[in-house]
Amino acid sequence: MLPSFKSPSFVLASSLVYLLIVKICGNTILAFLAGLFYLIHPINGIIVNYISGIVLALQVICTLGAIVWLLESLERKNNRVFYFLSLVLSFLALFWNESGIMMPFYISAVILLFRKGPFKEKIFYLFPYFLIVFSDLVFSFFFLSSHENFLKRVALFHMTGWEYVANLFRVLMWYVFQLFYPQGVVMAWAAPIVRDHLIGYVLGAMVLVVLFVLLYIKFVKEKLMQMAVVWTLIGFAPVCLAAFLRPDVGAQIEPHWFVVSSIGFFMGAAYFCSMALNRRPYIGAVLLFILVFAWGSVSRANNLLWVNQKTYARYWAQQVPDLKAAYIYLAKAYLDQGDLKESKKYFRMSLSGASSDLIAYVNLENIDIREGKLKEAEYYCHKALSVDPYSANTYNNLGALYYAQGHLDKAKDNYDRALIFDPLLLAPRRGLAFIALKHSEYQKAINLCLKNLDIVNDDASTLVLLLSIFIDEKDFVNLKKYTYRIINPETNPGILTYLGVFLYHHNAPPELAMDCFRKAMRVAPDYADAYQEAGTLLANLGQQTQAVRMWKVASTLKLKRD
């Protein structure tokens, strides 16, 4: 199946490619080919396969829509309605992806190349688009903590100028190669920084620059081809920084960064195909068929790789063995399937000695906990803290491990540290309550539970712990009070049923347990487990007739469900 049939938003984006080219040059055949190529090329597979890929299609829609409406406004003698709509779409284009900041440059390329008139006039109606981007950057700087100095992150690579050029050329050429011969397209590609034998890469970068200059000069009378060259170069610009933001990964590139600029490449491909069709119709038709069939077939094959996370992550890891993120995805896929051995293997393979190791360490500790390997889990907790010494969750997990091993003092210390770094975290207080119960400090345990409920008034785990304390203390007044605190219209029927079973098995008054079952039945009349457990309770109370009635209802509901 081709990408077009999987994403209506992407079909709309491709249609706007067609509409834009028709509007600026009137060549419907060229416009159709450009839209078709954009639609079927494997480089855009992430848009239709990745769970959040729709935002990339929306970015394209907003950017191209802004250009089309601006052109419409100018054709209607500066129609204010269309101009305002264009500005709104340009503003929305910033929300979908960071590369949206290049939006005014794409618009400027179209206006400066295809609109006649004084240069000052063009600048006048282009200026608001740049102002929108500038305002967004200022807002992000002051209010969204987006003020990190990216140049400092690039400096962490410790590259010379020639090394920078060589490595930038490498990642850009990977992308260019995928455009022409898309074998090995992945959602992110990376390679270690090269520091030796740079002459070939530097010469290649120089040739690439000269090639773009010559193409621009060559097509001085073909504005569409000049626009294709300029749009492609605009897409390259952000990569100069973005490729070097992860020293632990190396030089990195992601195809979705070019979701708008790649339209320039497809314009160029469509131009040469339409030229071949005009000069040699039969040969041109055969070449066009081969191109569409090849790109479409590869897209279909790539789409099949996205059938599940494990299949795609395995393919990704094979294509980019130096990118540890692929192993994280693969490990999580095995973890979801319950294959702990393989999951641990790939989590370990993902370790790189960088801050990203935290994900692997946390998952490795959780796997060891599930396997009952408490000492190994403790080791990975300490490794996680070596990466992030302020992780409240890791201190909480370490406290739970010490508690399970009977080291109550160490457990208490780690629970306390967890609360220092995140006072709103509920689990550490529950852990401290369990420690208090070990020392028969019932009131202290109750106070810890009540503190949790002040933060989240319906936390089921805390309420169940609190109820168990009241049962042990024979405090049936508070037991009833907090049981009915759980029983409310928003409570999940599964929680209500679990609570009823818990109360009955802990020798609480049976009417409380029965009230939980009744509430579960009201919340979800087709929840069979509530009737089943209510029947069991009634049978144990000697009410056989009512128990049988409940069991019959449960049996009927299960048959309907199955």
Question: How are the SSEs placed, and which strands pair?
Answer:
Blueprint: H1 8-25, H2 28-40, H3 45-49, H4 54-75, H5 80-92, H6 103-114, H7 119-143, H8 150-155, H9 161-180, E1 189-191, H10 199-218, H11 223-236, H12 239-242, E2 251-253, H13 262-279, H14 281-305, H15 309-319, H16 325-336, H17 340-349, H18 357-370, H19 374-387, H20 392-404, H21 408-421, H22 427-438, H23 442-455, H24 460-472, H25 476-486, H26 493-505, H27 510-523, H28 528-540, H29 544-561
Antiparallel strand pairs: 1-2
Could you walk me through the main structural features you see in this protein, from its secondary elements to its overall organization?
This protein has 562 residues and is mainly alpha-helical. Among the domains are: 3-306, no CATH class; 487-562, Tetratricopeptide repeat domain (Serine Threonine Protein Phosphatase 5, Tetratricopeptide repeat, Alpha Horseshoe). It is 73% helix and 1% strand. The chain has 29 helices and 2 strands. It has a two-stranded antiparallel sheet with strand order 1-2. The protein is elongated, with a radius of gyration of 31 Å. Mean pLDDT is 89; it is low at 1-6.
